[in-house]
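Discussion board: Methods & Data

I've been asked by a reviewer to show the raw model output for two of the constructs in my manuscript, not just the figures. I'm not sure how much to include, so I'm pasting the format here to get opinions. Each protein appears as its amino acid sequence followed by a line of discrete structure tokens. Is this the kind of thing reviewers expect to see in a supplement, or should I convert it first? Here is construct A:
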Amino acid sequence: MRKDSRIQIIGAGLCGALLALRLGQRGYQVEVYEKRPDLRKVDISAGRSINLAFSDRGIKAMKLVGLTQKVASLCIPMNGRMLHDTEGNTVFAAYSGRSHEYINSISRGELNALLLDEAEALTNVQLFFNHKCTAVDFEKGASHLYHYPTKKELVIEADCIFGTDGAGSSMRKSYYLGKKFLFSFSQDYLSHGYKELSILPGANGAYKAYKNALHIWGRGDFMLIALPNLDGSFTVTLFLSYTEGEYNFSNLTTPEKVIEFFEKYFKDALALMPHLPEEFFKNPTSPLGTVKCSPWHYRGKTLLMGDAAHAIVPFYGQGMNASFEDVVEFDTVLNEADENTSWETIFNRFETTRKKDTDAIADLAVDNFHEMKGHVNQPIFREKRTLETALEKHFPTQYASKYSLVTFNEDIGYAAALELGRAQDKALLNLIADHDIVTHEDMSIEELKIVLAKVREATEEILTEDRVSKLGQKEG
């Protein structure tokens, strides 16, 4: 782990740019190679999410590199979900009973540009754009690159290479095709894809819908969401099956059919989107997939991070945050090492501690997909959320919902949040369904104390049963 190590990073997206900045701050010599043009000079947003949900795990990473204030200026707070029914009626559901807990809408491009600016300002960090990585020789520690402007093929060696080149990672592909070691890889797609649309700003940049919320039109088998942008617009995303249902991406082939679909299910959104037909057919339809693989590293020469190691679907708003947390966790491993610690040891420690959490958030993201498109409109779910919000408000240090554990508790790993959160969800839903707790508006503190005690007891019983079950599986 010598400081004169020559480090190469493949991919200058959010994870790669943050990693370059942090390793540069630590004094390493860093070279970053990106296949696309410099996004600070050319618009390359087509087909990628324009804005993202930014929360506490990502904020922790910004604190690490000293960018908290600069990033704050790019954020729009979203305090909860604004739920829209088919008639255009809305209900606001706070993300937490604690007023200081909220997520933010942030521009992918502006955040990425900021990270690149900060990394490039360091004399020991170099950025190279228009360099496509075609393969990685993970045994020699060398990247094969194609330089678009000169059409030259290059082979560049490094002491260690980090693959942060996204879900379609060239390094991960080299692991798989190289067949030099046992490499497990899975890529699972949802039956749904997504298409990005927009609500344009009103006069003088006014917002046409409530600004400080993530808007959701959940319709059971599909949904529409909208996140605010700084210019007064909203980025709208349609999640819809490719082939199933009365309406799907395969049969929405005419402007008339698209208008009919939106008029039936999203009439209040349609009223704000006069340019919908043109945008619908201009913008791409993209897949939604989960990537899991192992090992992430090879003999201290290479390491996968971010989406290259663990791409997830976007329904917990944690894709970027999880990738940023990779950098924070890797930095912690570096802090615990010394000059005599090998890169292989460091990479192994990082993956050993990190992979269980990235597997957990992948599963949680799929869970939240089903929750957002359908469950949010079910009476029992709304009753549960209302109760959870009250518990968080009145007992802020004693209760946190699954969503809060994942989103606002950055010092709790995703795996621990999943285990406790799922048990609490099961306990609450069972108690409500069995009428073991009765909820009503304006519940007193004493009534909520009784509910909290019952929820805790039921949650602990479920956790104990789960642990016994897992122990039995291991022994069997």
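Construct B, same format:
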Amino acid sequence: MKLAFLGLGVMGYPMAGHLAKAGHQVTVYNRTQAKAAQWVKEYGGQHRARAAEAASGAEIVFTCVGNDDDVRQVVAGKDGAFAGMSRGAILADHTTASAEVARDMAALARDKGLEFLDAPVSGGQAGAVNGKLTIMVGGERASFDKAQPVMAHYGRAVTLMGPAGNGQLTKMVNQICIAGLVQALSEGINFAMRAGLDPALVIEVISKGAAQSWQMENRASTMIQGKFDFGFAIDWMRKDLAICLAEARLNRAALPVTALVDQFYQRVQERGGRRWDTSALIHLLANP
């Protein structure tokens, strides 16, 4: 298929690479053109200086940018993807953004004779590199059915969650759960250390029981070592939690733990940990 991928950050770069390796014709766009040129050198394909140019003629356009404002600019701006797409083409947005912007983009797409899917992902940089992301999709079934086999090149689970916005709402649930899990894991490891236990042995034992989680399997060892210079940055997690808290104010869902953990992340930021992995919550407990 003729595809476009807009946004070549730590997630988008390998995701677009999987599409090229699968044999699709991929044109990329990135605000920093040197990054796009580097991608083309590695994977082939083409790059363009404007999002609209990259999207021109593509059957499906994928976007993976930073936040709501970036989505509006790259998708619906003067030189955005919608300006270059042909009627009937699909735009699938992998950005973690608000449900509001997803619904706005879906409505605008309909007005232009285009199709839109909000399709945020979970699995981090490692999931993107290994092609094992979980993708939560909002939109029309017909659009999903066309895009799902393509997204499967980097998604081990690609699931339609309902109409536009539902992909983003599902990602919010994901982030809410992660926030609570990481805080609990931080408290457990810190408790083990202060109790004189071997924390690695404790994790080895309890990970075989009901306490097991992805965070425990993938982050406990580095948390014990106090290593955080990798993974999903706290700046991005706080962006995501702000979206969750804003949506909760609208639907009147109580998020007391999420709100508290967000404050803890703010304290880590103030310690210089803006780019540390989200597992750095333990730093507050280990260094009160």
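Answer (T.O., handling editor elsewhere):
This is acceptable in a supplement if you add a one-line summary per construct. For B, something like: The longest strand covers residues 155-162.
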